[in-house]
Amino acid sequence: MKKSKILLSFALLCSPFWLTAAQNSGASQGQSATASSASKISSSQSSRASTAPRSSTPRASNLASNSTAPKNSAQKPGSPTAANSAPQGNAVVSPATKGVAQNSMPQSGSTANSTLQGSDGDNLGTINVTGKADLSTTEGTGSYTTGNMSTATGLNLSIRETPQSISVISNQLLKDLSLHNAEEALSKYATGISLNNDAGGNRIVSRGFYVDNIQEDGIASSVSSSVFGPLGSSKEFTDLEFYDRVEVLRGVAGLTQSNGEPGGTINLIRKRPSDQFGFNASLSGGSWDNYRGMIDVTDAVNQSGTARARLIGILSKTGSFKDYPRNGYREGVGVSTEFDVTDKTLLSAGFLWQKTVGVYDIYGVPVLDNHGNLLNLPRRSYFGSDWDKSKYEKFNVYSELSHEFSDDLKAYARLNYTDSDSMLKFGALGGANPYNGSSSHTVRYRIYDNDSKEIGFQTGLDGKFEAFGQKHDFFLNGSLSNEKLNWRETRTRDSSLASLGMNIYNWDRSRIAQPDWSSAASFKDRSSTTIKQRAISLGTRLNLTDNFHFLLGGRFSKVTYSRYYYNILRGTASHRASPSKSDFTPYAGVVWDFADNFSWYASYAEIFKPQAARDKDGKILDPVVGYNLETGVKGEFFDGALNTNVALFQIIQKNRAMSDPLNTNYSIAEGKVRSRGVDAELQGSLTENWKLFAGYTFNRSVYLKTERTSATVDYSKGANAKRYIPKHLFKLYTNYEIPLGENRKITLGAGVRYQSKTASIYRENVAYYAAPQKAYALWDANVGYHFDKHFSVNFAVKNIADKKYFQNTQNRVAGMNNYYGEPRNFMLTLNYTY
């Protein structure tokens, strides 16, 4: 990755500030929002998942959101929208519970005094706010929930107003548990989400299906492991330090995405700059020589505050409980900027660079010896070489321009470009059947060199209109994206352990010499896939009465795949360009506010995904189609500080490729799977000092048709289609604050993660079958102390009981693909906020 890109981007991003400084050097400061010297990064931050300009003055505090959150034209006390509406005129916002401030801010043109908290919950003083409320930001609120999000429907709605199951991992929860990895955060503290370790890389699972698309600030991109598998993936998640929160949708994202599985999606919302100076730094140290440093600074760039910037940098040393040949590291820097072009027009831009170096454990450990006895190997076991290495690097640049025509109409355009590459190199134990002793253990040698480039663009309108005595909400947007993903593999012939003079009990990494990858004995493959997507989405929320709401919409999408494959050694090539697949996916939902704090909802959504399989005539099969039907009851308490949800869901996925019974070398689109279950969630604040997250999911997936005949895997009608996914998932974390006066306090937190039994996809009578992973529970805790409004310390412990378990893995067998979960570990973090 050329570092000149970073310097060039930084210069381009700074150029608006030079212009702004010149033209605003004499600008009045009377319109500025005021804050105490400690009301820094978090409390003034603008988090615009659906960004819009300030509606009052350019210098209005960045707490003033510009999203046009849909509300009823007439509200009554106790209604779900009244809970999120703001007082008019001059009002003092004194939240009854911490984290309510973002749900109690004034509407456009009003002013309020709000006492908010810093990134670790410190009281940051009083801020006079002019502008429109931001109900979404979680940084600085101390909350475990959020006010609004648009991930599910494209409309900026509260959790209660959205007729699907949605969750948020707030900034405070990330801090309490020292979570920096998105996959870890999702698997541990997002309801219904689990991970499947596939060839050493994690695949995110929701409602029995892989999550194939993720979003950043609403722009979707594919998970590259869904194209080439984890070994062919060039992408990794950005460190969570750069995000305000993680939003999770369980079920079909039919209004906001195309070309995906029906299980759900993830939306990562970036942190935004403030017009008030703020500084935050932290140092962390923990188990296995894990060390981390972070710096986060933000301020206005000119006197009037119409130009703002934020810089975040991270540097970490990443150790592991496994006996890797070396520790890894991660370094990253991100700059985000905002510029008020006019009172109604906002331009934002930013870039991010991140590099992660480590070791990739592809095959895990064997669990049985040649006679079928349990090996019970130590968790530190790693059967690789001295030269094993992994590297991921990404460069991301993004921009958004938004204009507010009125309080009821906003337009925006967003652009996102990401350049990613990865390298995996290893000589590792794998490829044996130790159960029946028919073959020897071998060492496999591989290099995977992958890269991808993707660009996404979205433009649209959000607004309101009046009809039949009520105000209603709508959105219209168009999007396009181009992705090119390249995968290159180099491999040499395997070596037997006997030839190396060792076995798993006397493993010696130094005996595994790195081969000559350029020799004639090396096999080289190369593949390139291009994915082009075009879509138009339209949705509306019809407020038939104050308490009865319909959501209707649809998305017309066109998806084109093109794949090129070339075997360098053999000199053979193939090229398949799939015809463009177009489809219209409808969306319908209803919400009935049947009580002051409760709403019933139901929804239906569709999504489709083209496939590459062909029938006997050489014709590509019709796309796989997923349908999500869901109903439930949501609750909202304490002015939105606490949200609850109970949902019943069913997903049908049809047109799955299955073996043609009359032409077994070809496929037919007649496979069908059903996923059913229950979700229950509670997240937010129970009292001023007590925060809680709890989520439970029951889920079972079955084949509705026999998809193929196999002696090793059961694909028959009625069989469990996802044996490697737990049927029961329960996650809980709670945190209690003990005030000590003068900005001093103690925070105590504890939680548990439970999952039921899982197994691999293979039948139990298969010779190389690995025993299922029994149900287990993992306990976590944290304790923190705030010395004053600036300094705090947090000590987090995970897996307190040091439970020994294997991660969920689809293809676990006796001799390989068994991956231990993390033993007990801790992290101590010292934080300074000014």
Automatic annotation (TrEMBL):
Pfam families: Plug (PF07715), TonB_dep_Rec_b-barrel (PF00593)
Biased composition (Low complexity): 24-61, 136-147
A GO-annotated cellular component: cell outer membrane
Biological processes per GO annotation: siderophore transport
Biased composition (Polar residues): 62-88, 100-129
Domain of life, per lineage: Bacteria
Position of the signal peptide: 1-21
InterPro entries recorded: Beta-barrel_TonB, Beta-barrel_TonB_sf, Plug_dom, Plug_dom_sf, TonB-dep_rcpt-like, TonB_sidphr_rcpt
Listed NCBIfam families: TonB-siderophor
Protein name: TonB-dependent siderophore receptor
